[in-house]
Design a protein that fits this description.
The complex is a heterodimer of chains A (458) and B (71). Chain A has 458 residues and is of the alpha/beta class. Chain A contains 13 helices and 21 strands. In chain A, 34% of the residues lie in helices and 22% in strands. In chain A, the strands form six sheets. In chain A, strands 10, 11, 12, 13, 14 and 15 form a six-stranded antiparallel beta sheet that branches. The chains are: A alpha/beta (458), B mainly alpha (71).
Chain lengths: 458, 71
């Protein structure tokens, strides 16, 4: 009997050389192309219109250069025209085992079908990150999450089932009840969005409970920038729970694409379940290793609705030869997601990515995790107001100085002077899902247009 | 291919599970075997040795899609 590997969930796969990984990817991508061409009306149309056929791909360079990219807007458009899944589906209704949706920022959610096999594989991606951090089948997971249609933490649940650990559902519970449940059920792992984990700490403190003394040994997060993206969030979570925090990057319609890294300054892509490369969003050309580009993904684990050369609009600094030093050879995203290529707004004539502003605000000492960017329209331009709550120890005059610091930090890095406003502690709404960072007060017609067609409408 | 595991044994198990599933008429037993086939295929995949993209042929997209689009 061979003893179980202590360091890797799958040492063989996680330590393959780049050459071996690329060899596997080419074979699997060719299989996905043939599968989608045979079964998906969407891909047949899309590729024929571009003069592409799967037989044209004989190398990874061919794949990146020749396969037309796809975008969420393509899928939204077809789903709206031919509900439920439109022309993008590749299996019959009888094989769809789980239906999920994206949140739909303008009220048009993307519908995501999965087969039973998709679901089993999607969940597994999480385990690579958990295992690297030290989480084992003997652990017990508490989900501070109100399930719903969102794929994100459903996939984490599927992952726990595959890992063989115990599940405690926190569905339908208030924040106070989550605190009580953690004390009563004694889980060892907390799963939630990072901002909600911080909210639980806040409520626990108000209840006189120190969760650093609780059973929690690990916290794991997804849905927004977390402990592998932002050192300040990592420190707050680690200290608050007396635990080790981790982060997974997911794209709901694709996969739990990047499960984490033991060293927590970035995340590794799950190269058993997807293939990715980085594209210059302006030219469509591949960017060099280590340069910032948009992550373009192909998943092997969504056979119900294949996503091939799919634009995520996530701006990443990726390394096919990882620089973290943890030992895993899978593609590494330093700092996780650095911004979004599609959420650009033009403020005072300067192009601004709100997600980049988010990352800067989160790094200002004294600014609490509770802040939002209020977008409005002034004539042909967007206006961006930053509202934030200070840490409890900051107040009054100190809060005003903090606002000046936020404005200066953004001006120095982004090159535009935005307005920043201190708001009372507790005034920004809390949620158990993703924190609502961007409040879009631009006219609904404009927002709908941007969601469906992209670009900036003047 | 992963040489440290006996991948050929895994492949034999997979082939046999597919065969047994096709020969069994009990929905309950077929379901067990379907899950086993999925897992064996994934185990082969994780060792870089999967025989095909998918273990079992899924159903085709519903006919109505084809009808609507061909109009």
């Amino acid at each position: 009997m061979v003893s179980e590997d202590r360091d890797y969930w799958n040492r063989y796969a996680e330590t393959l050389s780049r050459k071996e990984l690329d060899h596997l990817h080419l074979r699997r991508l060719q299989g996905m192309l043939r599968y989608a061409y045979a079964r998906s009306m969407f891909y047949r149309r899309h590729w024929r219109a571009a003069g592409f056929h799967p037989d044209m791909v004989t190398s990874l360079d061919d794949f990146k250069r020749l396969v037309p990219v796809t975008d969420k807007r393509d899928f939204l458009s077809f789903q709206e025209e031919w509900p439920t899944y439109g022309l993008t589906v590749a299996v019959g209704e009888q094989d769809i085992a789980h239906h999920a949706e994206t949140s739909g920022s303008t009220g048009i959610p993307l519908r995501i079908p999965f087969t039973d096999y998709d679901v089993e594989r999607y969940g597994e991606s999480w385990i690579y990150g958990w295992w690297a951090l030290g989480i084992r089948p003997t652990d017990s997971f508490y989900f501070a999450f109100n399930w719903g249609n969102y794929a994100g933490f459903w996939s984490a649940y599927w992952g726990v089932r595959r890992l063989g650990a115990k599940v405690f559902s926190g569905g339908g519970q208030s924040t106070e009840q989550h605190v009580e449940n953690i004390l009563r059920l004694k889980p060892t792992v907390l799963v939630s969005t990072p901002s909600y984990a911080l909210r639980i700490l806040e409520v626990a403190a108000a209840m006189g409970v120190d969760l650093a003394q609780s059973s929690i040994q690990y916290t794991y997060h997804a849905g927004e920038p977390g402990p592998c993206s932002l050192a300040s969030v990592r420190e707050k979570l680690d200290r608050g729970y007396g635990a080790v925090s981790g982060e997974l990057l997911g794209v709901a319609e694709v996969d739990a694409i990047a499960p984490g890294c033991r060293l927590r300054k970035g995340v590794h892509m799950s190269e058993m379940s997807n293939y990715s490369w980085s594209m210059d969003p302006e030219t469509g050309q591949e960017v060099e290793e280590g340069a910032i580009g948009e992550s373009v993904l192909t998943t092997y684990v969504n056979s119900a609705q294949p996503l091939i050369n799919y634009r995520t609009h996530d701006l990443v600094r990726a390394f096919n030869h990882p620089v973290c030093g943890c030992g895993c050879t899978w593609r590494y995203l330093d700092g996780v997601v650095l911004g979004r290529s599609d959420h650009m707004v033009t403020v005072k004539g300067t192009n601004v990515y709100p997600s980049a502003v988010e990352n800067l605000i989160a790094g200002v000492p004294g600014v609490s995790p509770h802040f939002q960017l209020v977008l409005s329209r002034q004539g042909s331009f967007d206006d961006l107001l930053i509202q934030f709550e200070p840490e409890r120890s900051w107040s009054g005059q100190m809060g005003e100085k903090l606002a000046e610091e936020v404005v200066a930090r953004i001006r120095d890095v982004v090159g535009v002077r935005l307005r920043a406003e201190v708001v009372p502690v507790g005034s920004i709404p809390r949620t158990d899902l993703k924190a609502k960072r961007i409040v879009d007060r631009r006219p609904p017609d404009l927002r709908r247009h941007l969601d469906k067609f992209g670009g900036v409408q003047s | 291919m992963n040489e440290s595991l006996n991948v050929s044994m895994l492949r034999s198990l997979y082939d046999e599970a597919v065969q047994v599933m096709e020969l069994n008429s009990s929905p309950a037993v077929r379901r067990c075997l379907r899950i086993a086939v999925h897992n064996l295929h994934w185990a082969l995949w994780l060792n870089g040795a999967e025989p095909d993209l998918l273990p079992l042929e899924p159903s085709w997209p519903d006919q109505w899609i084809a009808e609507r689009v061909s109009r």
